[in-house]
């Protein structure tokens, strides 16, 4: 089990859903659990018309392949958070991004809250940004919102494809609201498991994992170059 700190802002409630802004640092709450389950749920989640969550992936074309995205993500394996649950380049980038301003307006809190927040979705978003595939991969710190973006663009399904964005629920729930974690699919092993690259694992690192498909809610399909 990895230790982490939940820092809380008044507009958030603690709940085990990965990728939302962490509860504000003023309360200084301490907790110990699997890093894959540390994500407060925002009290209010709205997909505003100005929010990128409503934009289609067709609005910006990229010349990036799934193979290139996975190769870049693989280079991050071993990157780890610090004792406070922060310190990764993914959190630091997200806190300074335009998207952080948008999600703060949507969910409450502040940019600084992302510096020690659960970062699985931030990792996926960062890989998209750095490879030039962000318009296809999407970006958010809240896994449920990220999945809804794929769903709204008719790019969400149940087939594991290399480079797809995989959304997990540890209790096997299949609704978008059940999502707790996110990563990239490396391959379908065709034995009831998939190989993945994920940030913010139970060890607080970027790791390659083998996951049972029974824990998968669904897959987002970036519109990669062929």
Summary keywords:
single chain, 226 residues, alpha+beta, 6-stranded antiparallel sheet, two-stranded antiparallel sheet, 6 helices, 23% helix, globular, disordered N terminus
**Uncertain runs:** 1-35, 37-54
Assembly type of the chains comes to: single chain
* β-strand amount: 15-25%
Q: Give the biggest sheet.
A: 6 strands, antiparallel
How many extended strands? 10
Question: Total helix count?
Answer: 6
Protein name: CHAP domain-containing protein
Signal peptide: 1-31
InterPro entries: CHAP_dom
Organism: Nonomuraea cypriaca
Condensed summary:
A six-stranded antiparallel sheet has the order 5-10-6-7-8-9. A two-stranded antiparallel ribbon has the order 1-3.
Description of the structure:
InterPro entries: CHAP_dom (IPR007921). There is one protein chain. This protein has helices spanning 66-74, 89-96, 98-107, 120-131, 134-137, 143-152, and strands spanning 3-6, 12-13, 29-32, 41-42, 156-157, 165-168, 181-188, 193-198, 207-212, 216-220. With 226 residues, the chain is α+β, with helices and mostly antiparallel strands. The strands form 3 sheets. Strands 5-10-6-7-8-9 form a 6-stranded antiparallel beta sheet. Helix 1 (66-74) crosses helix 4 (120-131) and helix 2 crosses helix 4 (120-131). It starts with a strand and ends in a 6-residue tail after the last strand. The model is unreliable at 1-35 and 37-54 (pLDDT under 50).
